[in-house]
Specification:
Heat Shock Protein 90, five-stranded mixed β-sheet, 9 strands, 429 residues, two-stranded antiparallel sheet, alpha+beta, 3 domains
Protein backbone atom coordinates (compact mmCIF):
# COMPACT_ATOMS: atom_id res chain seq x y z
CA UNK A 1 0.00 0.00 0.00
CA UNK A 2 1.58 3.30 -1.08
CA UNK A 3 1.35 6.56 0.81
CA UNK A 4 -1.11 8.18 -1.59
CA UNK A 5 -3.51 5.27 -1.09
CA UNK A 6 -3.05 5.12 2.67
CA UNK A 7 -3.31 8.84 3.32
CA UNK A 8 -5.63 9.79 0.46
CA UNK A 9 -3.34 12.60 -0.61
CA UNK A 10 -4.72 12.80 -4.13
CA UNK A 11 -8.41 12.71 -3.38
CA UNK A 12 -10.90 15.54 -3.28
CA UNK A 13 -13.14 14.19 -0.55
CA UNK A 14 -16.47 15.50 0.63
CA UNK A 15 -18.45 15.12 3.84
CA UNK A 16 -22.21 14.73 3.70
CA UNK A 17 -23.79 17.87 5.16
CA UNK A 18 -26.57 15.94 6.91
CA UNK A 19 -23.98 13.79 8.68
CA UNK A 20 -21.99 16.78 9.94
CA UNK A 21 -25.13 18.68 10.98
CA UNK A 22 -26.40 15.67 12.92
CA UNK A 23 -23.08 15.14 14.70
CA UNK A 24 -22.89 18.82 15.64
CA UNK A 25 -26.48 18.87 16.94
CA UNK A 26 -25.64 15.80 18.99
CA UNK A 27 -22.57 17.53 20.42
CA UNK A 28 -24.43 20.79 21.15
CA UNK A 29 -27.30 19.13 23.00
CA UNK A 30 -24.86 16.89 24.84
CA UNK A 31 -22.88 19.91 25.99
CA UNK A 32 -26.03 21.73 27.03
CA UNK A 33 -27.35 18.80 29.06
CA UNK A 34 -23.97 18.13 30.70
CA UNK A 35 -23.37 21.76 31.67
CA UNK A 36 -26.82 22.22 33.20
CA UNK A 37 -26.76 18.84 34.93
CA UNK A 38 -23.47 19.62 36.65
CA UNK A 39 -24.46 23.17 37.59
CA UNK A 40 -28.09 22.74 38.66
CA UNK A 41 -28.40 19.10 39.73
CA UNK A 42 -24.94 18.41 41.15
CA UNK A 43 -24.75 21.97 42.43
CA UNK A 44 -21.16 22.54 41.30
CA UNK A 45 -19.98 26.06 40.60
CA UNK A 46 -18.34 27.21 37.35
CA UNK A 47 -18.93 30.07 34.82
CA UNK A 48 -22.32 28.84 33.62
CA UNK A 49 -23.16 32.03 31.68
CA UNK A 50 -19.96 31.87 29.65
CA UNK A 51 -20.55 28.18 28.93
CA UNK A 52 -24.07 28.88 27.71
CA UNK A 53 -22.74 31.66 25.50
CA UNK A 54 -20.14 29.37 23.93
CA UNK A 55 -22.78 26.69 23.30
CA UNK A 56 -25.10 29.32 21.80
CA UNK A 57 -22.45 30.30 19.24
CA UNK A 58 -22.06 26.62 18.36
CA UNK A 59 -25.82 26.36 17.90
CA UNK A 60 -25.88 29.41 15.61
CA UNK A 61 -23.06 28.04 13.45
CA UNK A 62 -24.97 24.79 13.03
CA UNK A 63 -28.15 26.64 12.04
CA UNK A 64 -26.09 28.53 9.48
CA UNK A 65 -24.61 25.26 8.20
CA UNK A 66 -28.00 23.57 7.94
CA UNK A 67 -30.01 26.34 6.28
CA UNK A 68 -27.58 28.70 4.57
CA UNK A 69 -25.12 26.32 2.95
CA UNK A 70 -26.93 24.65 0.07
CA UNK A 71 -24.36 21.99 -0.86
CA UNK A 72 -25.40 18.50 0.15
CA UNK A 73 -21.76 17.41 -0.03
CA UNK A 74 -19.48 19.83 1.80
CA UNK A 75 -16.13 20.59 0.26
CA UNK A 76 -13.05 19.71 2.23
CA UNK A 77 -12.40 23.35 3.14
CA UNK A 78 -15.84 23.98 4.64
CA UNK A 79 -15.89 20.71 6.58
CA UNK A 80 -12.44 21.46 8.01
CA UNK A 81 -13.46 24.99 9.01
CA UNK A 82 -16.51 23.85 10.96
CA UNK A 83 -14.57 21.05 12.65
CA UNK A 84 -11.80 23.47 13.68
CA UNK A 85 -14.46 25.70 15.19
CA UNK A 86 -15.79 22.69 17.12
CA UNK A 87 -12.31 22.04 18.53
CA UNK A 88 -12.00 25.68 19.61
CA UNK A 89 -15.50 25.65 21.13
CA UNK A 90 -14.86 22.51 23.15
CA UNK A 91 -11.44 23.82 24.22
CA UNK A 92 -13.10 26.97 25.63
CA UNK A 93 -15.63 24.86 27.54
CA UNK A 94 -12.84 22.69 28.90
CA UNK A 95 -10.85 25.79 29.89
CA UNK A 96 -13.80 26.93 32.02
CA UNK A 97 -14.34 23.49 33.55
CA UNK A 98 -10.98 22.04 34.55
CA UNK A 99 -8.98 21.58 31.33
CA UNK A 100 -7.75 18.06 30.56
CA UNK A 101 -8.78 16.97 34.08
CA UNK A 102 -12.42 17.30 32.99
CA UNK A 103 -13.75 13.75 32.30
CA UNK A 104 -15.24 15.02 29.01
CA UNK A 105 -11.85 16.15 27.67
CA UNK A 106 -11.61 12.94 25.59
CA UNK A 107 -14.32 14.38 23.32
CA UNK A 108 -11.89 16.96 21.92
CA UNK A 109 -10.42 14.26 19.63
CA UNK A 110 -13.80 13.55 17.95
CA UNK A 111 -13.51 16.20 15.15
CA UNK A 112 -10.15 14.74 14.09
CA UNK A 113 -11.64 11.23 14.03
CA UNK A 114 -14.44 12.49 11.80
CA UNK A 115 -11.87 14.08 9.50
CA UNK A 116 -9.79 10.89 9.30
CA UNK A 117 -12.85 8.96 8.15
CA UNK A 118 -14.35 11.40 5.66
CA UNK A 119 -11.80 14.06 4.71
CA UNK A 120 -8.34 14.29 3.19
CA UNK A 121 -5.06 13.66 4.96
CA UNK A 122 -4.28 17.38 4.85
CA UNK A 123 -7.45 18.20 6.79
CA UNK A 124 -6.75 15.45 9.30
CA UNK A 125 -3.22 16.77 9.90
CA UNK A 126 -4.55 20.31 10.44
CA UNK A 127 -7.26 19.17 12.85
CA UNK A 128 -4.96 16.74 14.67
CA UNK A 129 -2.25 19.38 15.10
CA UNK A 130 -4.83 21.88 16.37
CA UNK A 131 -6.17 19.34 18.85
CA UNK A 132 -2.70 18.54 20.19
CA UNK A 133 -1.93 22.27 20.51
CA UNK A 134 -5.09 22.91 22.55
CA UNK A 135 -4.43 19.84 24.69
CA UNK A 136 -1.02 21.28 25.63
CA UNK A 137 -2.61 24.64 26.42
CA UNK A 138 -5.39 23.08 28.50
CA UNK A 139 -2.83 21.09 30.46
CA UNK A 140 -1.29 24.24 31.96
CA UNK A 141 -3.97 26.90 31.57
CA UNK A 142 -7.50 26.30 32.83
CA UNK A 143 -9.91 27.16 35.61
CA UNK A 144 -10.30 24.70 38.49
CA UNK A 145 -12.34 21.57 38.03
CA UNK A 146 -15.93 22.25 39.26
CA UNK A 147 -16.29 21.25 42.90
CA UNK A 148 -12.54 21.37 43.54
CA UNK A 149 -12.17 25.11 44.13
CA UNK A 150 -11.83 24.66 47.92
CA UNK A 151 -9.11 22.03 47.58
CA UNK A 152 -5.52 22.62 46.72
CA UNK A 153 -4.68 19.82 44.34
CA UNK A 154 -1.20 19.27 43.11
CA UNK A 155 -1.05 16.37 40.72
CA UNK A 156 2.36 14.78 40.14
CA UNK A 157 3.97 15.79 36.87
CA UNK A 158 4.00 12.20 35.66
CA UNK A 159 0.23 11.98 36.20
CA UNK A 160 -0.46 15.16 34.25
CA UNK A 161 1.95 14.09 31.52
CA UNK A 162 0.31 10.66 31.40
CA UNK A 163 -3.13 12.17 30.82
CA UNK A 164 -1.76 14.38 28.02
CA UNK A 165 0.12 11.54 26.35
CA UNK A 166 -2.84 9.14 26.59
CA UNK A 167 -5.11 11.69 24.89
CA UNK A 168 -2.56 12.23 22.10
CA UNK A 169 -2.04 8.48 21.64
CA UNK A 170 -5.80 7.96 21.50
CA UNK A 171 -6.05 10.74 18.92
CA UNK A 172 -3.31 9.26 16.71
CA UNK A 173 -4.51 5.66 17.01
CA UNK A 174 -8.16 6.39 16.28
CA UNK A 175 -7.24 8.73 13.41
CA UNK A 176 -5.04 6.07 11.84
CA UNK A 177 -7.83 3.52 12.24
CA UNK A 178 -10.30 5.93 10.64
CA UNK A 179 -7.97 6.48 7.68
CA UNK A 180 -7.44 2.76 7.15
CA UNK A 181 -11.12 1.95 7.57
CA UNK A 182 -12.21 4.65 5.13
CA UNK A 183 -9.54 3.57 2.64
CA UNK A 184 -10.55 -0.10 2.76
CA UNK A 185 -14.22 0.80 2.48
CA UNK A 186 -13.54 2.94 -0.57
CA UNK A 187 -11.45 0.23 -2.25
CA UNK A 188 -14.16 -2.37 -1.68
CA UNK A 189 -16.77 -0.01 -3.02
CA UNK A 190 -14.71 0.62 -6.15
CA UNK A 191 -14.08 -3.09 -6.63
CA UNK A 192 -17.76 -3.94 -6.23
CA UNK A 193 -18.69 -1.18 -8.69
CA UNK A 194 -16.26 -2.68 -11.18
CA UNK A 195 -17.81 -6.06 -10.53
CA UNK A 196 -21.25 -4.68 -11.30
CA UNK A 197 -19.92 -3.10 -14.48
CA UNK A 198 -18.46 -6.43 -15.60
CA UNK A 199 -21.69 -8.29 -14.96
CA UNK A 200 -23.71 -5.55 -16.63
CA UNK A 201 -21.45 -5.83 -19.67
CA UNK A 202 -21.88 -9.62 -19.75
CA UNK A 203 -25.66 -9.31 -19.66
CA UNK A 204 -25.58 -6.50 -22.22
CA UNK A 205 -23.56 -8.64 -24.60
CA UNK A 206 -25.97 -11.48 -24.10
CA UNK A 207 -28.89 -9.15 -24.77
CA UNK A 208 -27.23 -7.85 -27.91
CA UNK A 209 -26.74 -11.43 -29.06
CA UNK A 210 -30.44 -12.10 -28.65
CA UNK A 211 -31.36 -8.90 -30.46
CA UNK A 212 -29.02 -9.76 -33.32
CA UNK A 213 -30.51 -13.21 -33.63
CA UNK A 214 -34.04 -11.80 -33.59
CA UNK A 215 -33.05 -9.35 -36.32
CA UNK A 216 -31.53 -12.18 -38.35
CA UNK A 217 -34.74 -14.14 -38.07
CA UNK A 218 -36.86 -11.15 -39.08
CA UNK A 219 -34.67 -10.26 -42.08
CA UNK A 220 -34.50 -13.83 -43.37
CA UNK A 221 -37.87 -13.77 -45.13
CA UNK A 222 -37.44 -10.38 -46.89
CA UNK A 223 -33.99 -11.40 -48.13
CA UNK A 224 -35.33 -14.69 -49.44
CA UNK A 225 -38.05 -12.79 -51.32
CA UNK A 226 -35.49 -10.39 -52.80
CA UNK A 227 -33.34 -13.35 -53.88
CA UNK A 228 -36.24 -15.12 -55.61
CA UNK A 229 -37.43 -11.98 -57.40
CA UNK A 230 -33.88 -11.10 -58.49
CA UNK A 231 -33.33 -14.56 -59.96
CA UNK A 232 -36.67 -14.42 -61.82
CA UNK A 233 -35.80 -11.02 -63.26
CA UNK A 234 -32.42 -12.35 -64.28
CA UNK A 235 -34.08 -15.13 -66.25
CA UNK A 236 -36.52 -12.73 -67.89
CA UNK A 237 -34.00 -10.19 -69.17
CA UNK A 238 -31.41 -12.75 -70.32
CA UNK A 239 -27.72 -11.98 -70.93
CA UNK A 240 -28.00 -9.06 -73.32
CA UNK A 241 -29.58 -6.49 -71.06
CA UNK A 242 -27.65 -3.55 -69.61
CA UNK A 243 -29.09 -4.54 -66.19
CA UNK A 244 -27.50 -7.99 -66.19
CA UNK A 245 -24.43 -6.98 -64.15
CA UNK A 246 -26.54 -5.08 -61.63
CA UNK A 247 -28.85 -8.06 -61.12
CA UNK A 248 -25.90 -10.43 -60.74
CA UNK A 249 -24.46 -8.10 -58.11
CA UNK A 250 -27.82 -7.94 -56.34
CA UNK A 251 -28.11 -11.74 -56.28
CA UNK A 252 -24.57 -12.23 -54.98
CA UNK A 253 -24.95 -9.61 -52.23
CA UNK A 254 -28.30 -11.06 -51.21
CA UNK A 255 -26.64 -14.46 -50.90
CA UNK A 256 -23.85 -12.94 -48.82
CA UNK A 257 -26.35 -11.29 -46.47
CA UNK A 258 -28.17 -14.59 -46.05
CA UNK A 259 -24.92 -16.32 -45.10
CA UNK A 260 -24.11 -13.63 -42.51
CA UNK A 261 -27.57 -13.91 -41.01
CA UNK A 262 -27.22 -17.68 -40.94
CA UNK A 263 -24.05 -17.37 -38.90
CA UNK A 264 -25.74 -14.98 -36.50
CA UNK A 265 -28.60 -17.42 -36.11
CA UNK A 266 -26.13 -20.21 -35.34
CA UNK A 267 -24.55 -18.06 -32.61
CA UNK A 268 -27.98 -17.61 -31.19
CA UNK A 269 -28.08 -21.33 -30.45
CA UNK A 270 -25.08 -20.84 -28.19
CA UNK A 271 -26.62 -17.67 -26.76
CA UNK A 272 -29.79 -19.50 -25.86
CA UNK A 273 -27.74 -21.98 -23.89
CA UNK A 274 -25.80 -19.32 -21.97
CA UNK A 275 -28.02 -19.58 -18.92
CA UNK A 276 -28.83 -23.25 -19.26
CA UNK A 277 -27.19 -26.21 -17.56
CA UNK A 278 -24.14 -27.84 -19.05
CA UNK A 279 -21.62 -30.42 -17.95
CA UNK A 280 -18.76 -29.08 -15.81
CA UNK A 281 -16.20 -30.79 -18.04
CA UNK A 282 -17.70 -29.21 -21.17
CA UNK A 283 -17.73 -25.79 -19.51
CA UNK A 284 -14.06 -26.02 -18.55
CA UNK A 285 -13.10 -27.29 -22.01
CA UNK A 286 -14.90 -24.31 -23.52
CA UNK A 287 -12.96 -21.88 -21.27
CA UNK A 288 -9.64 -23.69 -21.81
CA UNK A 289 -10.13 -23.60 -25.59
CA UNK A 290 -10.30 -19.80 -25.51
CA UNK A 291 -6.91 -19.65 -23.75
CA UNK A 292 -5.29 -22.21 -26.03
CA UNK A 293 -6.11 -19.96 -28.98
CA UNK A 294 -4.13 -17.08 -27.48
CA UNK A 295 -1.38 -18.88 -25.54
CA UNK A 296 1.24 -21.48 -26.39
CA UNK A 297 1.34 -22.83 -22.84
CA UNK A 298 0.20 -26.40 -22.19
CA UNK A 299 -3.20 -26.59 -20.48
CA UNK A 300 -4.35 -30.07 -19.43
CA UNK A 301 -7.74 -31.09 -18.07
CA UNK A 302 -7.73 -34.11 -15.74
CA UNK A 303 -11.10 -35.82 -15.16
CA UNK A 304 -9.92 -39.11 -13.59
CA UNK A 305 -11.62 -38.31 -10.27
CA UNK A 306 -14.67 -36.81 -11.96
CA UNK A 307 -16.98 -39.65 -10.94
CA UNK A 308 -20.40 -38.02 -11.18
CA UNK A 309 -21.11 -36.20 -14.42
CA UNK A 310 -22.50 -33.02 -12.95
CA UNK A 311 -24.43 -30.37 -14.83
CA UNK A 312 -24.07 -26.79 -13.68
CA UNK A 313 -25.80 -23.54 -14.65
CA UNK A 314 -23.69 -21.62 -17.14
CA UNK A 315 -24.01 -18.11 -15.67
CA UNK A 316 -21.85 -15.05 -16.41
CA UNK A 317 -20.66 -15.06 -12.78
CA UNK A 318 -19.47 -18.66 -13.01
CA UNK A 319 -17.81 -18.26 -16.42
CA UNK A 320 -16.04 -15.02 -15.53
CA UNK A 321 -14.88 -16.36 -12.14
CA UNK A 322 -13.40 -19.54 -13.62
CA UNK A 323 -11.86 -17.63 -16.53
CA UNK A 324 -10.21 -15.27 -14.05
CA UNK A 325 -8.43 -18.00 -12.09
CA UNK A 326 -7.49 -20.00 -15.20
CA UNK A 327 -6.23 -16.79 -16.78
CA UNK A 328 -4.07 -16.04 -13.72
CA UNK A 329 -2.60 -19.55 -13.94
CA UNK A 330 -1.79 -19.05 -17.63
CA UNK A 331 -0.33 -15.63 -16.90
CA UNK A 332 2.01 -16.66 -14.08
CA UNK A 333 2.93 -20.19 -15.20
CA UNK A 334 6.15 -21.06 -16.96
CA UNK A 335 4.91 -23.78 -19.34
CA UNK A 336 2.16 -25.96 -17.85
CA UNK A 337 -1.27 -25.58 -16.25
CA UNK A 338 -3.18 -28.52 -14.82
CA UNK A 339 -6.93 -28.26 -14.23
CA UNK A 340 -8.57 -31.21 -12.51
CA UNK A 341 -12.16 -32.02 -11.60
CA UNK A 342 -12.95 -34.07 -8.49
CA UNK A 343 -16.49 -35.03 -7.59
CA UNK A 344 -18.44 -37.35 -5.34
CA UNK A 345 -21.93 -37.41 -3.91
CA UNK A 346 -21.21 -34.49 -1.59
CA UNK A 347 -18.69 -32.11 -3.15
CA UNK A 348 -17.52 -30.83 -6.49
CA UNK A 349 -13.95 -29.54 -6.65
CA UNK A 350 -12.03 -27.79 -9.41
CA UNK A 351 -8.28 -27.49 -8.85
CA UNK A 352 -6.21 -25.09 -10.92
CA UNK A 353 -2.42 -25.60 -10.66
CA UNK A 354 0.50 -24.00 -12.46
CA UNK A 355 4.30 -24.34 -12.52
CA UNK A 356 5.02 -20.68 -11.86
CA UNK A 357 6.64 -19.01 -8.84
CA UNK A 358 3.59 -19.57 -6.65
CA UNK A 359 1.77 -17.07 -4.48
CA UNK A 360 4.00 -14.68 -2.49
CA UNK A 361 3.98 -15.77 1.14
CA UNK A 362 3.38 -12.22 2.38
CA UNK A 363 0.00 -11.95 0.64
CA UNK A 364 -1.31 -15.51 0.41
CA UNK A 365 -3.57 -15.01 3.45
CA UNK A 366 -4.89 -11.76 2.00
CA UNK A 367 -5.74 -13.11 -1.45
CA UNK A 368 -9.28 -12.17 -2.34
CA UNK A 369 -8.93 -8.66 -0.94
CA UNK A 370 -8.90 -5.81 -3.48
CA UNK A 371 -5.71 -3.99 -4.49
CA UNK A 372 -3.21 -6.09 -2.55
CA UNK A 373 0.47 -5.92 -3.44
CA UNK A 374 3.44 -8.15 -2.74
CA UNK A 375 6.89 -7.13 -1.64
CA UNK A 376 8.45 -10.24 -3.19
CA UNK A 377 11.21 -9.26 -5.62
CA UNK A 378 10.79 -12.35 -7.79
CA UNK A 379 7.06 -11.82 -8.23
CA UNK A 380 6.46 -10.54 -11.73
CA UNK A 381 3.64 -8.11 -12.44
CA UNK A 382 3.67 -6.94 -8.85
CA UNK A 383 0.18 -6.39 -7.47
CA UNK A 384 -1.52 -8.11 -10.40
CA UNK A 385 -3.44 -10.52 -8.22
CA UNK A 386 -5.43 -7.91 -6.33
CA UNK A 387 -8.57 -6.67 -8.05
CA UNK A 388 -8.93 -9.53 -10.56
CA UNK A 389 -8.68 -12.18 -7.85
CA UNK A 390 -11.13 -10.25 -5.68
CA UNK A 391 -13.66 -10.09 -8.50
CA UNK A 392 -13.25 -13.77 -9.41
CA UNK A 393 -13.50 -14.88 -5.77
CA UNK A 394 -16.55 -12.69 -5.13
CA UNK A 395 -18.36 -13.95 -8.22
CA UNK A 396 -17.75 -17.62 -7.41
CA UNK A 397 -18.66 -17.15 -3.75
CA UNK A 398 -21.97 -15.74 -4.93
CA UNK A 399 -22.38 -19.14 -6.58
CA UNK A 400 -21.82 -20.84 -3.16
CA UNK A 401 -18.19 -21.71 -3.89
CA UNK A 402 -15.41 -21.95 -1.28
CA UNK A 403 -12.05 -20.69 -2.58
CA UNK A 404 -8.73 -21.85 -1.13
CA UNK A 405 -5.31 -20.50 -2.18
CA UNK A 406 -2.09 -22.40 -1.55
CA UNK A 407 1.34 -23.22 -2.92
CA UNK A 408 2.34 -26.72 -3.94
CA UNK A 409 4.55 -28.23 -1.25
CA UNK A 410 7.03 -30.22 -3.37
CA UNK A 411 6.94 -28.51 -6.74
CA UNK A 412 6.90 -24.84 -7.56
CA UNK A 413 3.62 -23.30 -8.47
CA UNK A 414 0.32 -22.00 -7.15
CA UNK A 415 -2.87 -23.92 -6.52
CA UNK A 416 -6.44 -22.69 -6.36
CA UNK A 417 -9.19 -25.00 -5.12
CA UNK A 418 -12.78 -24.10 -5.96
CA UNK A 419 -15.24 -26.27 -4.04
CA UNK A 420 -19.00 -26.52 -3.99
CA UNK A 421 -21.34 -28.60 -1.89
CA UNK A 422 -23.59 -30.14 -4.50
CA UNK A 423 -26.70 -29.48 -2.42
CA UNK A 424 -25.77 -25.81 -1.97
CA UNK A 425 -25.08 -25.37 -5.67
CA UNK A 426 -28.46 -26.76 -6.70
CA UNK A 427 -27.07 -28.63 -9.67
CA UNK A 428 -28.00 -31.93 -11.17
CA UNK A 429 -26.03 -35.04 -12.11
Amino acid sequence: MNLSTLFRLEENLNLDKKTLVFLRWLAIFGQLISVNLVYFILDLSFPIFECHLIILFGLLTNVFLQFKIKDTQLKDFYSTSFLIYDIIQLSLLLYLTGGIFNPFSILIIVPTIVSSTFLSMGSTIILGSSTILFLFILTFFHLPLPGMEEYILSFPNYYVTGILISLIIGLIFLSYFGIRFAGETKKRSEALNKLQQILAKEYELESLGGQAAAAAHSLGTPLATISVVSKELRKEIGNNSKYTKDLDLLISQTKRCSEILKKISQKKIISDQFFSEMNVEDLLEEIIKSFKESSEKLINLNTEKYINLINIKRSPELVYGLRNFIGNAVKFSNKKILISIDSDNINLRINIEDDGPGFPEDIIRSLGEPYIKSRAKNFKNNGGLGLGTFLGKTLLERQSAIITFSNKSKLKGAKVEIKWRINDLNISS
